[in-house]
Structure formats: structure tokens, C-alpha cells
Design a protein that fits this description.
Mean pLDDT: 84
Largest sheet: 9 strands, parallel
Number of helices: 6
Distance between the termini: 76 Å
Length: 418
């Protein structure tokens, strides 16, 4: 049996080596040694690497001191040999490593490979250099952590390597999200740009992806429910959804609490939600080539390193002077929960679905906020009410544009301070 893995050999009799040990891509094989001088067949483990293609043989009969499997659930194990005094540390896929150790245990106990009757025999280990090179080439594909696919001919027929950390599938007119991607538990970077995908499964939100590129697809009617999963909300740092014919800003984005970079250019956005200010860690926001005529006043609460508003509809020619007079409604008192919600937001008290009902969290996140910091549950939204100055280090705009803001006012006093 062969196991494609990564190994590190530690010599117990030698001096301890400081620093981090380096793992090598390896093929481990269990079988009988054809080169043994004795008439009986000797079971051995052969360790084959790129630097040692002839392989290193370790005898198994009365030579294995201990097998450490404490971290088997993480795909890690260690085989300790007596002669020579080597510890072979192994890292591999959990299922394959478990199967390999079962075969090894059967050999050590003399039970055979297929069962207690010992009917099956181990194959002889006589590796020719050409065959070794082929096995090592296959191991490089299995152990690869990065995969780039830019044509249909490059698409793997036998599935993706479970060790992938970065996967790019671009420009192949992919119409459906491949469910095999959901099996890649180590995946952190996913690029599906320039395809024809119309829907992303909610299960994608259960993966701890750091960077996702979905630009150049057809997600204009997508519900974006996968962004509501706790795993993706706590890991996603970069998202590109440009060129998807979006007519609205996906409201689920406000729950991505560690998102640093958002690229949503070349769409058809006409408005941004007031809740965009809840994305407190966002630093790079690209809104170029949309149809924005204004931004919400709540964006003045954000601290951005770069904001791109070029090629939008922020022209001064279309500016209007709204009627900011607020009709007085004597005797009307807000509800108790509204007063409590205003205090929580104004004093920056932490709230989450586990603390208060989810419906109330939704209302508090999506309710427009006055410039003084109070939530306005019933106030009118005045479009292009004022020109604002955003807290941004690098603001990219057209030369004849200014940043108009949509605003709400909690009282007559706030409306006169604009």
C-alpha cells in the first residue's frame, strides 16, 4: 500500500536541531523487501522522496518501537523505529492516513492485510527509477496546495486535492458551482471570476475562506445567504463581486465583521444602505462605474484608506435643495424598545443575535442613523441633502463631482445644523 504524504525524519541519536523542521513530499509504501538476503520475506516501509528516489527502507519486524496517533484527527502521526533510531513524522489526509495505519497494524500483528486469516500477501517493493518518478509526480499533484484552471481541459477528472489552500477557476464559462469545492476544508482563497455562475450554495459560508473573487459572473438575482454563516463572517477579509449586474448592495455584507477589502465596481448600484457603516474594519472600498447619485451620511463614521467613487452620478448639476422642515407631532412618544435601541447604538454597547432577538438586530442594523448618532425609525430620508467630507485617506472621484449624502434627522435641531 502506498501513502502520498509529507514526512520529516528525526534522528534521535544525533544532536537536536533547533528551529522548525522541514517536511518533504513523500511516498510511503508498505511491502516485502525483495532485496532481503534471507529466504523469508521481510516486511518493510519504503520512504521515497525527490532527493532519494531509490527510497529508504525501514524493517518492520520487531523494529517499530511505537506509533504515535494522538493527532490522527488532524492528519498527523509518528512512527518510531528502533534501528536506525529514527522518528518518521507524517502529515497526510485523515482518511488515507488512517487506512495506511490500519494496514501497518495488520502487518505488525501478523493478521494480514485483508483480515485475520492473513490470506493476502504484501507486494514486493522493487521500484524502478521511471516508476518512482511517476509516483512522485503523482504525489506532487495530490499534495499541491494551489490549483489554477483557465481552460476546461485543465479541469481535474478525479476531483481536487484535499490539501488545496488556493483554487482558481476562471474563464471557462462555468455555469454551476462545483460541490467538490465544499470538500476542501483547508481552502482559504477561492477565485471563480469570469464565469456564468448564478447561485452560490449556502454551505460555502461554512468554510473559513479569507479571500473570494466572484467577479464577472451573473449573480444579479442571488440571495447572498452564504454570507450569513458564522464561519465566513469571522474569516472573510477580501471579496470581489464586480461585474455581476447588481442593482442593489447585498445587505448580508454588513455582517462580515472582519472584511477589509470590498470590490463592487462595474455594477448598477443606485443606493448604498445606511448600515454600511457597521463594516467597521473595511479599509478599501471600490464603487467605481456604478449609478450612485449620493452616499448615506453614515459613511462619515467609517475610516477608509481608499474609496473609489469614479464614474458615478455625483455631478453637481443634478443637485437639489430638499425641504428639511420636520412637522411637529405633539404628544407622540416613541416605543420603549426604540428608546432602548437608540441608547445602545449611541453608547456603542455590543449587541448580537445571541444577546437580543435576531429580528431586533436586523432592525437596528438597517435603520438610518442621524448625524448626532441617534437611530431614526420613522424619519424621512432626504436624498442629496448635504455635501459631506468622508474620513478617507485616498478618495478617487471625477473632477466635477462632489460627495452628496442622503440624511435623516431625529429633530428640528439636527436639521438646522446641516
Amino acid at each position: 500500500m502506498k501513502l502520498i504524504c509529507e514526512t520529516c525524519v528525526v534522528n534521535r541519536s544525533g544532536p537536536p536541531s533547533g528551529g522548525k523542521r522541514a517536511f518533504q513530499k513523500t511516498v510511503l509504501a508498505v511491502g516485502n523487501d525483495k532485496k532481503s538476503s534471507s529466504s523469508s520475506e521481510e516486511p518493510v516501509i519504503m520512504l521515497i522522496t525527490n532527493s532519494n528516489k531509490s527510497g529508504t527502507r525501514y524493517g518492520l519486524r520487531k523494529n517499530v518501537g511505537k506509533i504515535f496517533t494522538r493527532f490522527l484527527a488532524e492528519g498527523k502521526a509518528t512512527i518510531s523505529f528502533q534501528i536506525p533510531e529514527h522518528d518518521v513524522q507524517i502529515k497526510s489526509e485523515v482518511v488515507q492516513l488512517t487506512g495506511f495505519l490500519k494496514v501497518l497494524r495488520a502487518v505488525l500483528t501478523g493478521a494480514g492485510v485483508d483480515g485475520p486469516d492473513g490470506g493476502a500477501k504484501l507486494s514486493c517493493l522493487s521500484m524502478v527509477n521511471k516508476k518512482t518518478s511517476a509516483v512522485l509526480a503523482a504525489s506532487n499533484k495530490v499534495l499541491a496546495t494551489k490549483c489554477v484552471i483557465k481552460s476546461r481541459g485543465e479541469y481535474p477528472l478525479k476531483g481536487f486535492s484535499r490539501n488545496l489552500v488556493s483554487l482558481q477557476i476562471s474563464d471557462i464559462k462555468l455555469c454551476r458551482f462545483d460541490p467538490q469545492i465544499l470538500l476542501l476544508k483547508s481552502l482559504r482563497v477561492l477565485n471563480l471570476s469570469n464565469n456564468c455562475i448564478e447561485k452560490i450554495p449556502q454551505a460555502l459560508g461554512q468554510m473559513r475562506l479569507v479571500e473570494v473573487d466572484l467577479s464577472g459572473n451573473a449573480l444579479q438575482n442571488h440571495a447572498w445567504e452564504w454570507l450569513r454563516e458564522p464561519a465566513i463572517q469571522s474569516s472573510l477579509q477580501s471579496l470581489n463581486i464586480s461585474s455581476n449586474n447588481l442593482t442593489y448592495f447585498p445587505s448580508s455584507l454588513i455582517y462580515c465583521r472582519v472584511l477589509v477589502r470590498l470590490d463592487i465596481q462595474m455594477n448598477h448600484l443606485q443606493k448604498l444602505p445606511f448600515a454600511v457603516w457597521k463594516m467597521s474594519r473595511l479599509r478599501f472600498l471600490n464603487l467605481a462605474r456604478n449609478q450612485l447619485a449620493s452616499v448615506p451620511e453614515s459613511m462619515t463614521r467609517m475610516k477608509l484608506d481608499q474609496l473609489d467613487l469614479s464614474e458615478n452620478k455625483l455631478s453637481q448639476d443634478a443637485s437639489t435643495v430638499p425641504d428639511l422642515r420636520i412637522p411637529a407631532l405633539p404628544g407622540q412618544m416613541p416605543a420603549l424598545w426604540e428608546m432602548a435601541a437608540r441608547v445602545v447604538v449611541a453608547r456603542k454597547i455590543h449587541y448580537a443575535p445571541g444577546i437580543i432577538p435576531f429580528l431586533l438586530v436586523e432592525i437596528m442594523n438597517r435603520t438610518p442613523i442621524c448625524g448626532c448618532g441617534l437611530l431614526c425609525f420613522t424619519s424621512r430620508v432626504y436624498e442629496r441633502a448635504k455635501v459631506v467630507r468622508l474620513n478617507c485617506q485616498h478618495l478617487i472621484m471625477d473632477s466635477n463631482h462632489v460627495v452628496y449624502a442622503d440624511a435623516v434627522f431625529c429633530s428640528q435641531r439636527c436639521s438646522t445644523r446641516q
